[in-house]
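Hi! If you just cloned this repository, the fastest way to understand the data is to look at a raw example. We've pasted two of them here, unedited. The first protein comes first, obviously.
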Amino acid sequence: MSSPKTLSEIEDLLPALTALRHDLHEHPELGRAEFRTAALVAASLRDLGLDVASGIGGTGVVGVLKNGASGRSIALRADMDALPIQEATGLPYASATPGIFHGCGHDGHTTMLVGAARHLARTRRFDGTVVFVFQPAEEGLAGARAMIEDGLFERFPVGEVYALHNWPDLAEGEIETRPGPIMAAADRFDITITGRGGHAAQPQGTPDAILAASELIGQLNTIVSRRIAPTDAAVLSVTRIEGGKAHNVLPASVEVTGTVRCFDAAVQDRIEAALRKVAAGVALGSETRIEVAYDRYYPATINDAGAAAHALAAAENVATRAAMAPHPSFASEDFAFMLKQRPGAYIWLGQRRSASEAPLHHPAYDFNDGVMARGIALHTALAESRLSAQAGV
């Protein structure tokens, strides 16, 4: 079991790991194109003597570290991809690739898991197998599902799987998780309203796609408040409306896009059904044609209760505060796919340094290097505690 001494043991690793994190930040890669990142990770793991497999689910990398004779096993996962956002930090190691940067801290996640591999490879205070999973394409491209479909858990069978994410909502060094839902399911809807198009001075002969879109948006925003029970948390947001090019032309079509977030598949069913009914009603009343594309691209992230308890127990020795998260987040996470395959937990690692801390996915965001040691120590504590003789994984 990890103890406070783990943090001091890690100190000698931090200069090289910080340099690695800054290098990854300066050279970000989008999902499914993490070629340089994957190569650096694979080389680092091979240098430690781990068995390494590359190209899993596209650019995914898996390293395997065995110690002792136990058949117990655990997976630790980090995501590697960056975001299509122009960085605005002004850092000396800012992204060298215009329009792409690590605005969610995956450079930090990758580095912490590399650090955990380095520390566990030299201390070996566990009995069993640690599988280090470096996942591509988390940002909306379902890299976790791609790795699973490519045989991740058949090739590398494990009893449990854990992941952590830096969390600017929590103070630096705090750690939280919870049993059950911790991140929301993510759905996307794309709606096309088609009228006829024509002169704005003669609207009587042209079914008005813009007017239909405005009515549709108003009704969509009543679905959660009027068709979903107040006890069932959900969010529906319209995020884009596009149509028309000229001030005197009624456009032939308008597109409306948005997202739905909730924690229960039955609630997803009700929202999607209601959305389709609303669209059909507006189409009938406006004499337009409305087509709905509805994509449930990430399920809810549901922590196993036992695994969440194990994570908090491991965090007690490495966090400034380890606590049960009071509520889940409406953000989404494709680690959900892994938790549908194996028991495990998703964990938040606080990184907030001040009240003005930039949030995730903000152009001014940067991963806080000051929490790197605690992240490595948490990975270490999970491996050592779950692969101890008393764990029974």
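Ok, and the second one:
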Amino acid sequence: MSLKYRRVLLKLSGEVLLNRQTGQSIDPDVLAQMARNISAIVAKGVSVAVVLGGGNIFRGLSGEQSGVDRSSGDYMGMLATVINALALQNALEVLGIPTRVQTAIAMPQVAEPFIQRKAMRHLEKQRVVIFGAGTGNPYFSTDTAAALRASEIGADLLLKATKVDGIYTADPQKDPAAKRYRRLTYQDALTQSLKVMDSAAFALCMENRIPIVVFDFFAAQCLERAVAGEPVGTLVADFDQGSELY
């Protein structure tokens, strides 16, 4: 299988790690599946960076609704992403994949601080780099952090992993008439205020011409197909012919 994209940034939702039945914040089976999926494209020579959310542990916006100061809540959420990053690092290293965690908030006993040149060097050495603590600033989502880090490392593609198989015209769980996009322009994604990523993330990718693939992370060979340029989920990019539905 030939590669179309050789350096990618994978954005993973923290909520995917949550096991609601057992109450585990980090489901070991899901974590192991994440690691196997990532190792499959590392084995093909793809340079991989990862940004994990922290919604399985704490989300700043939800905390604000419960009376937590928004800035404090966002910092708590950033620390949650570091917990997830360390868990994924361990799962990857169990598979023999060399991995580094870099954080936007300095915590040298736990991980390296984010240094763009050092991150690039790790990627050149085929180490998976996991970026924790978002952008290091409150009021910015981990989607925006993913778009920012993708721009900084010169990623060819941003892979947005979800629990559904792409971007739909409406919530497919609520509207059975919802249709999935085969492709979507950045501008359409912004004007329609699609909730799959926030507008700042879409705008940053548009400005730096980084295509986005939104896909079901648990579909068979999802990452291998995506890096090969095969149609997976929904592709968001610049298209002369505009957006297209399946």
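That's it. A detail worth noticing about the second one: The beta strands are 7-12, 47-52, 99-103, 112-113, 128-132, 157-162, 181-185, 212-216, 234-237, 244-245.
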